[in-house]
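Incident log, structure service

09:12 report received: a user says their structure output differs between two submissions of the same chain.
09:20 pulled the input from the user's history:
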Amino acid sequence: MEAMDSENQGQADVANHDDAGSPGAGRGVVATWRYTVGSLIFVALVLYMMLALFVLDTAEPMSAQHIALLALAVISMLGCIRYFWFFRAGLGSGLPPLRYSVLLLAPPLAILLFGAVPPTGTIFSVLPFWLAVNCVAILVKRRTRWKVLAGGLVVVGLQQIIALYLASTSESFQISEYLVPYFTMVFYAALLPLGLIGGIWWWEIVLQLDRSRRTSGQLAVARERLRFAADLHDIQGHHLQVIALKTELAERLMDADPAAAKTQIHEAQELARTALVDTRTLVRGYRRTDLATEAANAADVLEAAGIRCTVDLDHQVPAPDAQQLLGTVIRESTTNILRHSEATKVSMTLQPTGTATRLRVTNDGVEPVSGTVSGGGALANDGTGITGLRERFSAAGGTIAVSLAERTFELVAELPAGTP
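09:34 re-ran on a clean worker, output below:
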């Protein structure tokens, strides 16, 4: 029962880790996993190729035992490669379903037995089993890992003792013929645990860095929201409290002193107007940041999220309204990049021309699609943000154009020269 619980927990850990590591991870994380599993497959191919070449070189003539050994090697290699995908859950994440472990260990055990018995006597027959032991050691807990590796060494050592003993009974046995292959096998076997465990350890480091990057971006957005909420609360809290008190007082005075009640209602109305003006002033001040500051703030937020941002706003737009509109584009673009893309690079460029002022924002974090939508056309996933920008720019005589080619999304906001 405990074994079943442990197995189910291991499967759950794998699933949870995949969910965290695949959909929400950046392209760098996906590429790192591909390099990691690709390097593991390469190591397995090299080890099994060494076994196959040694068998073919010593098979004179080719017997049924040699053919069976090569067939087992192919099956064992496929089972091992399938097992590599469970490493995505990281070190000590728990064993997968039992059938995968059986497929991983059974063929190498058979190879180990075939390799100890003449006429094969294959020194490299220990490598598939040692590779399988290391694969199991990656997924078990740390304390169990060293026990698994020690047990594998004992089995390999016994197999080699038996193989050398059986080979020594042959009249043609010469120990010198075994030295070079033997030391080659020991060299690869010694490096195998370091390579496998080190590769998965590095994969875990990359995952942790990616989670930290995404958390930093979310915290930067949340910090800005909290700052605005605090300012809004400070402005409106006092006014609303006084308005509530004055309307309560007016209600009490309504029958006894209508004139005083009217005065209180009038003062409450004035306070409401003042609160409205202060709120508008706050929002206007929040939005009417100059374009350079708006771009700098956006760059800071993107950099905190691990996204490299380049800003080229050497040509300032003097008109406040134009800066407000273009600043809105930067804020909306930054929000969309953080929420809906896996960008690694963002560029913001201001390009004044003789007849217009053009702001171009590009990022490389969208999924590839066929075709390109450009000009003033709408993409299928424009959303309300870009639609709202189009409406505001249209009212000012400007345009919003978006284009999507391969993984690059580009938004171009253009205002006529002379926009106030």
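09:41 both user submissions now match this output. Likely a transient worker issue. Closing.
09:42 reviewer note: DSSP finds eleven helices and five strands in the chain. Residues 298 and 355 are 27 Å apart (CA to CA).
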